[in-house]
């Protein structure tokens, strides 16, 4: 079942973390979170509380569920001054935190203040160190904000890409100059040296033949895969443009590649320049930020829209990139009461190169709590849409943590959040699949029995079907109750209200074989006869030994078609006789044809759980064999 399980989408579950003690970080947005996975610690620094920048440093102990404030004012202990829109990375080797960048209000953007200071926090010694007063003076980036940072632990290198460069305000300037954007830089920890790898495409040196350039941006996502040794950069904005490209940069060979080649208005696609010293560059496809795209999609494509606030993490073991999408970045739509206010969560598989949207939840403005809302579909509490929040991933426990942010309330623009959330992603387990297989077989048997012997069917429902139902699952419980109503329906009601068995309700997109079954009724006679054996009074023939050992997938086997092919006909005939005795009015031919089609449909569905080499030729049940 491994292939089937891997194809399934995740199920998500948010929960609001109620911490021990009274001390915890206050309301804020534009702060930073980093995680020490080995010691089970999360560090938080700074941010904007709606009135001022902060310089406090906190640590959350996951095991003890407890926040501790390390510094209230870090600048008093040789640390950074109050700031927001900065970036931090954690080095698991040295157990140091590196911090770079910040946002400055236009009123204080003077030459004296605009310096790109670079800090280190030693988590073991609990001390701050200013590595550099201004990275721009030593070959590093200028002061910027809304950039991204990642660390290559193996090569002891930090990568910094994008962000808007802060320049001294010009009091006498009559026109507003074009904003500057920062390129791609690397910082080697061991030698304390900066290197510029790519310049922005509008940089003065970008036209030189030996200079590599890239279209820089802000509010993008960037993660590093330590095994593939690649940076993955997705989305972003530049001015009023949304940038839709998905770029990889291989750090060892310094090569760029665009993963999503979408045609632009000229019928061209984004391209990577050849790395041969001819002034290579990466172009991107941009769309109007005011376009009326479907929520959380990019021009109708199945991928997150860069027009929304995105936060990305990566799991290098699973080869997956996770993207949490929330409020729109556009100012006139950046309101929690806007029609597009919603959250969505996406997964990008580096193996299949495909996006999957795990869920989308729209905000309910009638919710009494501004920090969480009730998703009517699954009745789960979830965080309200926001921006300026932070998101970290625990790749050991496979959990995401989110803190704070700006809910975008136009009526209270100073409001910031202090809620702390945990997101868990889970795929179906083998025992759940096996249990569901039993449910499908027993459900079909019950539906046939309900037409022929309602009293016997009632007992079957109460015992055999009830034991394969998760009564704590509202959806399964509703389906269970719905089955009871079949006992009181006539043929016409059953025929019009039966739900097609087209997919397994486990999150995956399973292809239905119903059309081919009905279109080739004569050809599939043998298939129907074989499948009728599958739907006999017990499902032991489907899941051998699984009643006692649901965790042993090797014990799962199917009834071979070498059994008597006439058993299906005789079974159908006896079933029809009982059906007529109970008052059924349908013709024998119509009854048996429907019976065969439904059983064949179920068998086709169960076959999809197994490796293709167990069905030769694929999906041909008449040639089905046991291996």
TrEMBL record:
Residues 264-297, 509-519, 558-570 have a biased composition (Low complexity). InterPro entries: CTLH_complex_component (IPR052456), Gal_Oxase/kelch_b-propeller (IPR011043), Kelch-typ_b-propeller (IPR015915). GO terms for cellular component: cytoplasm. This is Galactose oxidase. Residues 542-554 have a biased composition (Basic and acidic residues). Residues 260-309, 501-570 are annotated as: Disordered.
């Amino acid at each position: 079942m491994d292939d089937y399980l891997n194809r399934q989408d995740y199920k998500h579950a948010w929960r609001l973390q109620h911490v021990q003690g009274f001390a915890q970080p206050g309301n804020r947005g534009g702060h930073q979170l980093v995680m020490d996975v080995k010691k089970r610690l999360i560090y938080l620094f700074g941010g904007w509380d709606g009135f001022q920048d902060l310089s406090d440093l906190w640590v959350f102990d996951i095991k003890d569920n407890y926040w501790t404030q390390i510094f209230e004012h870090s600048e008093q202990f040789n640390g950074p001054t109050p700031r927001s829109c900065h970036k931090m990375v954690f080095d698991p080797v040295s157990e140091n935190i590196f911090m770079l960048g910040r946002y400055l209000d236009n009123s204080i953007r003077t030459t004296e203040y605009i310096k790109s200071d670079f800090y280190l926090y030693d988590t073991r010694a609990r001390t701050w160190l200013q590595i550099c007063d201004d990275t721009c003076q030593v070959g590093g980036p200028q002061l910027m904000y809304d950039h991204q940072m990642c660390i290559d632990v193996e090569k002891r290198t930090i990568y910094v890409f994008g962000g808007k460069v802060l320049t001294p305000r010009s009091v006498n300037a009559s026109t507003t100059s074009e904003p500057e954007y920062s390129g791609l830089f690397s910082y080697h920890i061991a030698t304390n040296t900066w290197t510029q790898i790519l310049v922005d495409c509008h940089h003065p040196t970008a036209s030189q033949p030996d200079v590599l350039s890239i279209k820089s941006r802000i509010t993008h996502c960037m993660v590093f895969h330590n095994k593939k040794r690649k940076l993955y950069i997705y989305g972003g904005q530049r001015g009023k443009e949304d940038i839709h490209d998905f770029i990889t940069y291989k750090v060892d060979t310094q090569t760029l590649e665009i993963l999503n080649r979408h045609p632009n208005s000229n019928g061209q696609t984004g391209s990577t320049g050849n790395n041969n010293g001819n002034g290579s560059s990466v172009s991107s496809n941009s769309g109007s930020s005011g376009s009326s795209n479907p929520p959380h999609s990019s021009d109708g494509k199945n991928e997150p829209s860069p027009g929304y606030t995105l936060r990305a993490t990566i799991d290098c073991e699973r080869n997956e990139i996770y993207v949490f999408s929330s409020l729109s970045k556009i100012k006139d739509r950046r309101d929690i009461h806007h029609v597009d206010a919603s959250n969505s969560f996406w997964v990008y598989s580096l193996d299949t190169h495909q996006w999957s949207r795990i869920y989308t939840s729209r905000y309910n403005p009638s919710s009494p709590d501004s920090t969480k809302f009730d998703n009517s579909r699954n009745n789960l509490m979830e965080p309200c849409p926001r921006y300026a929040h932070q998101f970290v991933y625990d790749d050991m426990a496979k959990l995401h943590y989110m803190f704070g942010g700006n809910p975008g309330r136009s009526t209270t623009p100073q409001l910031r959040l202090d809620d702390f959330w945990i997101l868990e992603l889970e795929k179906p387990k083998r025992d759940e699949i096996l249990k569901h297989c039993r449910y499908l077989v027993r459900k079909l048997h019950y539906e046939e029995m309900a037409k022929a012997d309602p009293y016997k069917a009632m007992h079957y429902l109460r015992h055999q079907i009830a034991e394969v139902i998760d009564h704590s699952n509202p959806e399964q419980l509703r389906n269970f109750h719905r089955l009871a109503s079949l006992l009181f329906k006539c043929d016409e009601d059953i025929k019009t209200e039966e739900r097609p068995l087209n997919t397994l309700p486990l999150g995956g997109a399973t292809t239905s074989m119903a059309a081919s079954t009905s279109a080739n009724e004569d050809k599939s006679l043998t298939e129907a006869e074989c499948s009728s054996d599958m739907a006999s009074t017990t499902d032991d023939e489907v899941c051998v030994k699984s009643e006692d050992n649901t965790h042993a997938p090797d014990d799962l086997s199917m009834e071979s078609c070498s059994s008597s092919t006439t058993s299906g006909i005789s079974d159908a005939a006896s079933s029809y006789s009982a059906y007529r005795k109970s008052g059924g009015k349908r013709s024998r031919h119509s009854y048996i044809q429907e019976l065969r089609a439904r059983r064949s449909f179920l068998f086709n569905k169960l076959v999809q759980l197994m490796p293709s080499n167990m069905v030769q030729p694929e999906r041909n049940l008449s040639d089905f064999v046991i291996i």
